[in-house]
Amino acid sequence: MTSKAKREMIHHWAERGYGIPTTAKLLNLTVDEVRAVLTYPEPPASKSDRYRPEFIEPPSFDFGE
Question: Which stretches does the entry tag as region Disordered (predicted)?
């Protein structure tokens, strides 16, 4: 599995016209891995990431003291 940074680089380089073999060689990946990143969408986030509680810091009432 490729990292998010490498997936972003693959998409960026594909938009600029770099070929799949060149991208694979520069990122030290196989041609099939690069082709899979370009063909299939990014894997969905796990359920634990989507349903985390949101922590909001309460306002501070210092009034300049």
Answer: 42-65
